Every structure is written in structure tokens, then in C-alpha cells.
Amino acid sequence: MLPLFRWLSRRSLAFLHTLGAGVGWLAYLLSPTYRRRFQDHARQAGVSPQAARAAVAEAGRMIAELPFLWLRPASKPLADFVHIEGAEFVEAAHAQGRGLLLLTPHLGCFEICAQAYAERFAPQFGPITVLYRPARQPWLREVIEGSRARPGLATAPASLAGVRQMIRALRRGETVGLLPDQVPPDGMGEWAPFFGRPAYTMTLAARLAQQTGAAVLLIWGERLRGGQGYVVRILPMDEALPADVSAQAESAAVINRAMESLIRQCPQQYLWGYHRYKEPRAGAAE
Predict the structure, then answer these.
(1) pLDDT, tens only, 19-47
(2) Helix 32-44 and helix 49-64: axis angle, to 10°?
(3) For residue 197, what are the β-bridge partners?
(4) H or E stretch at 83
(5) Distance (Å, rounded) from C-alpha 146 to C-alpha 132?
(6) Coil, strand or helix: which one is 187?
(7) Beta-strand relationship, 100-103 and 128-132
(8) In sequence order, what DSSP letters do the residues of 188-234 get, joined into one string?
(9) Is-above-0.90 flag for pTM?
(10) Residue 110 and residue 116: Cα distance in Å, rounded?
(11) Residue 188's domain spans which residues?
């Protein structure tokens, strides 16, 4: 697999996105379980049939672009194919001397967000720390760890040690990135509405902001047509998180509404096949 991965990493984005569209439809047609979940989730959110069809191909493009993004030489600047909108919100947050928490759902190219932040803002404001769970396959774990060993980009394991690492980063005035629509282990979340249906939602995002006083912004990477690149969009939240740390169910609901607001901007690039409403797995981070 690794030779194929390396070969794909040298192809153009246009090629990879064309290939990925086919992969997305192949997975959709061959897996009844995936197809049913995809349709149910899109219907639950009130997504139009046209947007849902487009999301099938976009899910495949998300997979196909990973070799390009993970094995991209550090010497190749993202500025060649990534445009950032909302940089002023990042600058304003750091001007207050606060840490910054960036939240993104499984929307568009979320992998590009941390890399783009690291290249654009880390020289001035310090690194961004992102939460990760190591891949099970040794070759893939090596690829992913290598891809994230970039200037201005740090990783924190999905464990209590990783949580402490993120808290320290925020208290230093640095930035942390999270995907809060991931389903956390049992005991580490709250049930909160997500497109009108209860979803087990992580409390970590809210607790990080509440315990450190960090500013919170939303971020997502829109995939442009024809392999032209990406637009990374950074936005403020419409609602403030509750100040009370104990109000975790309310905090989870606020964050879910923020994720919904981003997804509604571009429903054709959300991963509707993600198992968002599943029961949490047993066991907590160590």
C-alpha cells in the first residue's frame, strides 16, 4: 500500500479528485449499510437530493486527496493552492493574549485546516496542536505521523495526557484544533441535538475553552472544483458558550448548533456517511 500511496501523492489534485469521485460512488453503491446511513443522515438534516448526491463524490475526494496532503514536502507552500478567509479573527483573538480553540466538523477538507494555520499563523502566534488517534496499520501510522511533523504543527494523543497537553498550549496563548462532531468514549460526552436528533457529543471542546479562557472560532476547508485548491474559512461562533463549566449539556448543544451552521453552508461536502448517531464505545481516555 505504501508504494501506491507515494505514487498517488505525486499526482495532481485534479487527478486525485477525479479518481476520488469514482471511489466515493463505488463505496456508496457497494455498501448497503453505508448507503442507508448516508441517506438517513442527509434526510435527517433536510439536505436536498442534489446536495446529497454531490456529497457522495466529495466523500471519495476527501479520501483520495490524503496522499497529496500527508506526503506533501514541507518545502511546497500551501499558499500556492490555499486561500484563507477570516484571518482577522485569528489576529484579533491572539491580540487579546488568549489561547485559541478552532473547531471544525467533518466538512470539506478538514485535514488542510491545521496545515494552513501552521503555515500562515504559527510563525507569529506559535504552533497549533491537534488531537489525533494513531492508525492501527503500522505503515499508515508512519505516514500520518510524518505528515504532521511539520513546522508549527504539534499533535496530542487522544488520552488524558493529550488533554493536559492541549490545556498547556491554550494557557500559553497558542492554538488547539478539534473536530467536535466525533463521537467520544462513554462518559466523555453529553447527549445533545444534532439536526434534531440526539447525538452523543464530546464535552472536551467546551471544557478546554471554559477552563483556559480561550477564544473559540470555527474553521473549515472548502474543496474547490477541478482540483483548483481550497478556501479555508474562519468564522466566529454565533452563540457564546455558557460560562458555567458544569453546564456541559447546554455547551454541547451550543457547539452542535455551530457545527450545523457550518454544514448548512456547504452540505454537499459534509461526510453524511459518518456514524454520528452511534452509541459511544466503552472506556475513557487514559
Answers:
(1) 999 999 999 999 999 999 999 999 999 99
(2) 130
(3) 194
(4) strand 82-85
(5) 13
(6) coil
(7) unpaired
(8) SEEEEEETTEEEEEESHHHHHHHHHT-EEEEEEEEEPGGG--EEEEE
(9) yes
(10) 10
(11) 78-269
